Amino acid sequence: MQTMTTLLRGAIGTAALLTLPYVHGQSSPSMTDIQIDANTVEAHVHPEIYGHFAEHLGRCIYGGIWVGEDSDIPNTNGIRNDVVQALRDLDIPVLRWPGGCFADEYHWRDGIGPREERPAMINTHWGGVTENNHFGTHEFMELCEQLDTDAYVAGNLGSGTIQEMMNWVEYMTSDADSPMANLRRENGRDEPWDVQYFGVGNESWGCGGSMRPEYYADVYRRYNTFVKDYGDHIYRIACGANGDDLNWTDVMMDRAGRNMDGLSLHYYTLPTGNWGDKGPATGFGEDAWMSTLNNALRMDEILTNHSAVMDKYDPDKKVGLIVDEWGVWTNVEPGTNPGFLYQQNSLRDALVAALHFNIFHKHADRVRMANIAQTVNVLQAMLLTDGPKMVKTPTYWVFEMYKVHQDEDLLGLELDSPEYEHNGQSIPQVSATATRNPETGVIHVSLVNTSPEQATKIAAKLEGFEGKTVKNGRILTADAIDAHNTFDDPEHVQPKPFSAVTLEDHELALTLPAKSIVVLELHP
Ligand code: AHR
Hints:
Layout: H1 4-12, H2 14-17, E1 30-44, E2 51-53, E3 75-76, E4 79-80, H3 81-88, E5 94-97, E6 121-123, E7 129-131, H4 137-147, E8 150-155, H5 162-173, H6 179-186, E9 197-200, H7 213-225, E10 235-242, H8 246-256, E11 262-269, H9 286-313, E12 320-328, H10 347-362, E13 367-373, E14 383-386, E15 389-392, H11 394-402, E16 409-416, E17 419-422, E18 425-428, E19 430-436, E20 443-449, E21 456-463, E22 469-476, E23 496-497, E24 501-504, E25 507-512, E26 516-523
Helix pairs in contact: 5-6, 7-8, 8-9, 9-10, 10-11
The protein binds alpha-L-arabinofuranose (AHR).
């Protein structure tokens, strides 16, 4: 990276330099060239790439979403109004529930009927706390209705029976005069619900049963046979690989590829890359900033590799790659239950989210859905709550800024980025994506500057686009790399208008500030 020092040395010589103080964070901008080809549509950006995940884990469901009808916290049928409103503003396309690892020990019949009569269980994975089953199928479906989002229900293959899974699907989706549909009616719901997505096992290589792919492929096929379509086709998702495990994908595609609609993939970004000490969510320095962004960018290579394996068996790309768990996983906040996975969320995490979206767009021909872990109070959350208080995280704001890309066409984009270097590591300083609304012709361009100190001058040539107007530009940045929002200072990191942009002679020009995310709207 060109620094203030190297630049000044060239311009005015070393002697004069000695009299000039180095001003931290003010090195001269680098130069970035981008070509956007509006004549080429590379893929469609499925809105489900902006999906979410809420598990019975820590304070995600209980306290974060469900407070019960008698709570003093304003709620509708037990679900907090502030959280629903904040999430509605993100246009959430799909919500995955009830796990995660919890899904493979969840017995759905414990979560229906009068709440005071529901049996309790121990949540063995997450803190060993007592789960009272007050949030069950009806409450989840109510949440989906309040959010106006699709339901992705994760079934229990690890410790549940085939009949149990079959009955759950019938309970939720059958309109017949059948035992399970009638049980649903007895519990107050006449109409079947739409369940658009169903997961047949979660992390079956680990917490979901410690299986080998050869064994799981057969078990998957057996369970999946009994996931019936009572109405619209339910999109079935098989458990996929952990990070780089290409063999899992290979075996699953070979042995069960024709029996699934989607195959999942889990990859988490650990700041240190070490599960024993993942690194703190705040209070870190530039080493951790660099290693976190570097680890996040691995998602690109991981998707490329899994896609190549899937292409061998499915060249027409019928099976979707479903990244149903991703995000930053840090050490928990000091003093909190280690099993609750409660972590703060900083500007760094916002950049991780934006980098992921740019990568998911690039792989949109194969990536059909992605679900960040998790919605409230767990891992890279959108929202943090403390009793009646709620705060939107920097990651929330990335979802809010990027929602314009949902359901748009991905345009061809070539990027010649300078490198951001630190501590012997190097990553591209700029990441970018461009999509076009197929109805209005408006192009949305999103840009990320990974350098914590150096701005970059962007010159983006637009081929096949005659527009001259840039509207509604917004930027997310902050004073520090670990800047975050707290209950006392909830608006410390939030988007601001960004208008220092020109669009003339098919060239978009702007200076992208250090450690920032910018989203622009180009009008035809
Ligand atoms: O999201 C937290 C946990 O991470 C999920 O329960 C599990 O599937 C994964 O290991």
